[in-house]
Write a structure and sequence with these properties.
Rossmann fold, 3-stranded antiparallel sheet, alpha/beta
Length: 255
Amino acid sequence: MNYGKTRIIVCEDEADLGRRAATAVAAAMRKRLAQHDEIRMIFAAGQSQMAFLDDLAQEPGLDWQRVVCLNMDDFWDPRLQVECSCGYQTRTQLYDKVKPKRFELVRYNAPDPEAEARRYAGVLEAAQPVDILCQGIGMSGHLALDEPYQADFDTELLVKVVDVDEQSKRQLLADPNFRAAGYIPAKGITMTIPAMLMAAEIFTMVPLRLKREIVTRVLLIRTPTTAVPATILSRHEGTLFLDRDSCPPAWGGRP
């Protein structure tokens, strides 16, 4: 099945999705590592990425010493505990295990978010071209923290400061990775959609029943709209991994 240019793979459950997505991403990494001295990858945090990150960390035969990893976003609040940051999850689930050549994180507690956005844009610009993007879709329909109506499909910015959507806050308060904070910061720092979708290969992982409503909404929209930023995936070649819980029944999900 396809959503525009994006291929859809429906997995049995979250564990199956994690394994199959990790296998696909690892295959793309091996291919590119055979062609280049170094590759660059963008990663996301969040509950939907947990199984995938765990399985990718166990994939054999990957020369992580030639891989540069960049996080796509993080919340911004100087009060935030490090354990509640996006960077903490990707570091503990993946980077600390595989020991990449280098990993880059958004400074969630930087004194000035605008200055941090400019700094991180420089990091991303220096890392071009990006080989592989690994991401999810939020319950608001966001990619990274590019929220509805704040997303811009044509911006020349690489990184920007955003207001976190109320629906995203509700989702994340139920997420075990962020629940400990007891609140979600009002602002975030995120790569823009054009910056992320410049990646040569795009993988989107969206398991879990709580994502079915937004996945259904996305798949029914054929013309990309900033009201649902994830609809831009229809214009880009890539792979969308769903499980039978997140996938609507009409597309192969559980009734």
